[in-house]
Design brief:
With 482 residues, the chain is of the alpha+beta class. The protein has helices spanning 12-15, 25-44, 88-102, 117-122, 124-129, 132-137, 150-155, 158-167, 183-196, 200-209, 265-276, 278-281, 289-295, 362-376, 392-395; strands at residues 50-57, 60-70, 75-76, 82-84, 217-218, 233-235, 242-244, 261-264, 300-301, 317-318, 323-324, 330-336, 339-346, 351-357, 406-410, 415-421, 424-431, 434-444, 447-452, 458-462, 469-473, 476-480.
Length: 482
Amino acid sequence: MSLLDVTDAEGAATVIGSAGASSDDAVLTKNQTALQTVLQKLVEDGVVPGIGAIVSVNGKRISAYAGYAVLENKTPMSEHSRFEISCLMKFYVSLVALGLAEEGKLDLNAPIGEYLPELREKAPDKAGTILVSHLMSHTSGYRGLNIAAATVKWGMTWEKFVDFFARTEQLFRPGTVFSYEHTEHVILGEILCRIANESAEDLVKERICRPLGIAVNNSPATKSYSSASVVGYASGCRLREFVRMVEPPLGKFWFASLPATALPLEDMAMIGDALVSAATRDHVSFATTCCRTQLEIPIVAIHQPVDYGLREQLPRSFGLCCAQYSNGVLGHNGSMRGLTCAFRLVPHCGAGIVVGTNVWLPHVRDAVMTWIVDAVAGQEQPSNSRRYTPTMEEFCCGFAPSQLAGRYFGALNSELTVTVNADGMSCGARSTKGQIPVFSARFDGRSPILDTVLPIPVTIFSDQESHVPCIRIGLNTYKWTN
């Protein structure tokens, strides 16, 4: 089955768009059946071990689940299954920040050094030019931590990070280039804690979850999952081959950015409803008119990949809380330890959609999400609309291929090396085991043939300030250095 044709299940694409448009029980039942058909086909075809999706339009909700939350004991995926929210925590922490700003307790345009004197003392240049809003929009521009290192995952502390922040390189002028850096929300969480005398986790529970009646539980230990916990898997070399992820959650340092907190998809959908549905938003304090307006304001444009193959979807821009996609759609994704979730908001339709699966295949998640969003918004998109073959000039963003050769420093404190010859180019990432392949592009006449190791997009663009080439792998940006 072609993943871009995931909606070919009989009758599915014709009815989901009316979800919530009528109170007629028969219509809602028909929509739920259509959604269930699509998800079940993904499981039956061996694409994912388990998956769930929720569609809510103006307070009317349908949901569907298929497959298993835990393969080993055949625990079914259900409305009780809890997914680790991982990066979605960044969205929730940013909502709290918007609320504190509206209350006059936080200045989004203030340098972070005003709230964190230890950063001002040890890194005066960075702490004086990086604003709170830069943290929220992922435009701080500094080279972050390597989250793949065990000492960083489980041994990092705030004191150690302050020393790292003082030493690390400033790659881009703050506010100019998007790069998804996890420690930005660790810094933001520390600022909120200093202002409110509560941890970022507790502030999210108090200001967002509790008013909606959401009970927050932390994910249990990896080897003793409860019946409600979803287990993450890595995809094997063949369909229906999934390898259980056994890594424990990250340490406490990361909880404002990548926590062990787990929620059912139903609760994630409830938070989205509060922001777009008139039926619920007036009953919670965080969904103010000011907050909802801020969600839709783009702060930084994101260069788009010219290869529209089967890869994770990139947003058009990013704001103070979330990403902005085409046609006014807002959203955020969260992935960790084999799990991946995403939500999208369609404000002009009063719609919220959540999709979650327990294997890290973001292109599958996004294929399902795009189909649902298009159907809800009444947009018809041909299955080949994202299959576009770029020219060499488009792929290289106007650079000659030879100009792209060299080392690139960037996200996750990592380094890329690009080599170029007459046949094409290849890119690898430095690791303790040598170079790990990231992508290759074979030159074939006027168009390169791109091959990525992971199902994520590759974007080449020019830094507007230094005019050197940059490479974005997914949401992580790297800058040419030699």
